[in-house]
Amino acid sequence: MNTATVTRPGLEPLVSGVSRIVARGLDARDTAFAVADLLRDNLPGPDLLTPAEREGSPDRYVTHILHAEDDFSVVAVVWRPGQGTPIHDHVSWCTFGIISGIEHETLYRDMGDHLVEIGRADNLPGEVSGFAPPGDIHKVLNTSSELGVSLHIYGADVAKLGGSVRRLYDLPVK
Ligand SMILES: [Fe+2]
Fold first, then answer.
1. Which domain holds residue 134?
2. Alpha-carbon distance 21 to 90, whole Å?
3. How far does residue 10's CA lie from ligand 1's centre (Å)?
4. 3'-(S-cysteinyl)-tyrosine (Cys-Tyr) cross-link position in this chain (predicted)?
């Protein structure tokens, strides 16, 4: 896929900007932070998604891969109120921005046979964050009473990999 195929409202400046950042060959953490600066200035609105996509699903949160190439992907996530992820980490750096709803994030440290909670954050509309593995074990929950829509940019081709998750954790939290 190349930028000529990017037809979603507001997505093209983001895709061409991420392409330029990735081409600089920074380390993962600095790439995530540079992409966060870009996303902060270019966060698309809800019309990035079609009305049908913005319905979400009663069963679980839904992801839409909006753009994927060898070294990065742009994914929209739609969460109805109360929907969230299991505890997981990622295959690559990730930068995300909140378009609507609240992404309540709980962070964990892997102690081998159990996890320890090390932090919590409420990510609100307009807010952008970036991170890189290791140390990115978390779960995310839409704690607002509104539909949650967020945009996630990963430093990998998640279409080819089948997703952004490296590992799911079913260890006890102590
Ligand atoms: Fe995640």
1. 12-168
2. 20
3. 23
4. 94-154
Residue 152 marked in a binding site? no
CA 94 to ligand 1 centroid distance, Å: 8
Contacts (Cβ under 8 Å, ≥6 apart) of 106: 117, 119, 120, 138, 139, 141
How far CA 149 is from CA of 25, 56, 92, in Å, comes to 30, 9, 21
Distance between Cα 140 and ligand 1 center (Å)? 7
Centre of ligand 1 to C-alpha 53, Å, is 20
141 domain residue, yes or no: yes
**pLDDT tens-digit profile, the chain (174 residues):** 444 467 788 899 999 999 999 999 999 999 999 999 999 999 999 999 999 999 999 999 999 999 999 999 999 999 999 999 999 999 999 999 999 999 999 999 999 999 999 999 999 999 999 999 999 999 999 999 999 999 999 999 999 999 999 999 999 999
pTM for the whole thing?
0.93
CA 3–ligand 1 middle distance (angstroms): 25
3-state SS assignment for residue 103 = strand
- Please state the domain count of the chain: 1
